[in-house]
Amino acid sequence: MQEPSEQGAPETALVDPERHVESFRQAREARRSELVEDYVELIDDLIGDGGEARQVDIAARLGVAQPTVAKMLKRLCEDGFVQQRPYRGVFLTEAGRRLAAQARERHRIVERFLCALGVSPETARRDAEGIEHHVSAETLEAFRTFVERHGGT
Amino acid sequence: MQEPSEQGAPETALVDPERHVESFRQAREARRSELVEDYVELIDDLIGDGGEARQVDIAARLGVAQPTVAKMLKRLCEDGFVQQRPYRGVFLTEAGRRLAAQARERHRIVERFLCALGVSPETARRDAEGIEHHVSAETLEAFRTFVERHGGT
DNA sequence: TCAAAAATATAGCGCAGGCTATATTCAGGG
DNA sequence: CCCTGAATATAGCCTGCGCTATATTTTTGA
């Protein structure tokens, strides 16, 4: 019952370490950029929706406290994605808008893909929020193709 | 060129904040449990492959330093997933084996799904490492169904 | 057998990203 | 016009998860 071949990986005899490590590295890197993309995408959404992006609204949507948002905005400012004036709303730079557009496009494709696959809209929306950051260009292209072939509204 | 309706979210008028926050919360929670699953799955793989899981091998596969692994193992020990004796290898508890089996199953399905979708095996393996943790039960079921219908070896 | 090499344990540091508490500034209504 | 409430800024703390450096223990081979 506990011989290795049963509890281990029967058919996959463990990929070689170098490739293995590469996968994990990629996942870690994705985790690092996740937040940046989420913020930028959200800011762009808020500006598009109400004309401005306030810290309280960002905080409310992300489910974090306002100082957390403030700290992150400072980082985004340093990274050149947003511009902010003290006690005023936050705006996206050109780079920020590009990143937002790209993130939204990926998000949109992933969400639609899941829907086209038969996943409920609610679940699709929630899963897409996590999945989008781990989808490579190649996989994204496969998603897009699938959506176009099937009923991707 | 910069009127809100163009750079914002044209068709999606922003989902309500409560649902929005729920998606992000789910993504954050997934991030928290990612590492635990990766470790447990890898440990199970190593034990299945070579009969033992040593810190150096875990470190080499994850691409992190050995003390990082040691620290995480301590946490996994406290959480009841692994058992370790000083200066000896690490073993999975019953709970650890269950978690490993579940994680591997998800991983396997996601990877095969991507392959069935036409993604190259190499990319599938790498993307699966990140995606697997963000796939809900419903989406996983959709993946499984798709694999069974199409060429899922 | 025992010294060197390998593996593990431990100490201590840094950064990211959460939080609360509090100060400061802005915007509106008396 | 000023006063109050809302928003933002700032300080300080915690935890998670990386790292290096080093001590300890085990393993190994001459």
What features would you describe in this structure?
The structure is a homodimer of 153-residue chains. Chain A is mostly helical and 153 residues long. Chain A is built from 7 helices and 2 strands. The first copy, chain A, has a two-stranded antiparallel sheet. In chain A, helix 2 crosses helix 5 (94-116) and helix 3 (55-62) crosses helix 4 (66-78). Chains A and B meet through helix 1, helix 2, helix 3, helix 5 and helix 6 of A and helix 1, helix 2, helix 3, helix 5 and helix 6 of B. Chain A binds a DNA duplex (30 and 30 nucleotides) through helix 2 and helix 4.
Key structural traits:
homodimer; mainly alpha; two-stranded antiparallel sheet; 2 strands; globular; DNA-binding
What strand line-up does the widest sheet of chain A have?
A: 1-2
Largest interface: A-B, 65 and 63 residues
Based on Cα principal axes, name the global outline of chain A. Answer: globular
The radius of gyration over CA of chain A amounts to 19 Å
Give the oligomeric state of the chains in this entry, treating copies of one chain as homo and distinct chains as hetero: homodimer
- Per DSSP, the total helix count of chain A is 7
Between the first and last Cα atoms of chain A, what is the distance in angstroms? 50 Å
Sheet/helix structural class of chain A = mainly alpha
Task: Give the percentage of residues in beta strands of chain A.
Answer: under 5%
By DSSP, the count of extended strands of chain A is 2
* String of helices and strands of chain A: HHHHEEHHH
Low-confidence stretches of chain A: 1-11
Summarize the amount of helix of chain A as a percent range: 55-70%
Largest sheet of chain A: 2 strands, antiparallel
Tell me, rounded to a whole number, the average pLDDT of chain A: 89
